[in-house]
Amino acid sequence: MTAAAPAAPPELKAALATLAAGELLAFPTETVWGIAGDSRSELALGRLHAWKGRYAAQPIAVLVPDLAALESLGAELSPPARRLAAAFWPGPLTLVLRCRAHFAPGVASAAGGVGFRCSPHPAAHALAHAAWRADRATVTATSLNHHGEEPARTRAEAAALCRGEGAPRLLEGPWPDAGGGPPSSVVDCLQEPPRVLREGALSAARLARAASEGAP
Length: 216
Prior knowledge:
The protein has one domain: DHBP synthase, CATH 3.90.870.10. The strands form two sheets. The chain has a six-stranded mixed beta sheet with strand order 6-3-5-4-9-10. It has a four-stranded mixed beta sheet with strand order 7-2-1-8, with helices on both faces. The chain contains seven helices and ten strands. It is globular. By secondary structure, the chain is an alpha/beta fold. It has helices at 11-20, 42-52, 67-72, 79-88, 122-135, 155-161, 204-213, and strands at residues 25-28, 33-36, 62-63, 91-97, 114-118, 139-140, 142-143, 169-170, 185-188, 195-198. Helix 4 (79-88) packs across helix 7.
């Protein structure tokens, strides 16, 4: 079951304006701080790669508000993928799926897979819902760090990185800090049975059980 969208504070209006301009936004998640950019915008993806110093060929995950939005995007959800989303979303799970929606170059992998996340953190969850309601947009969900460095885990660390030309803007508002939990587990659903690419917060055994039985 998907959690209801929290009430949007005024600060989200400024956040949406930042994203609409092709700029980047730093926001907290249940793990570390992330970088949001409009996943359809080549300008935003170019700025993201330039600031992080990251290779453009490395795919970037996308934040969605819920399973219904994912379906509206035209993601190809096999029965195991659907069971995984139902069992663990919102939660620390990234599903790699084929999707008919348009994304900027650098989002999908060379194999055509896009990593989708649905975060339970109040700020990330509200941002994903606000972007979707405003323009049926989705945002990137990569970590806030320069390539090869540790991601920001606190608001103070995030604020230090959000300085200088080209840096992301800090999401303002009465949000909790990043949760500091283990990274999301990543499951490749381009094949059957799905393959665990990263065993993070969810063990491979739990993922396999949910994919086959639907029970977390």
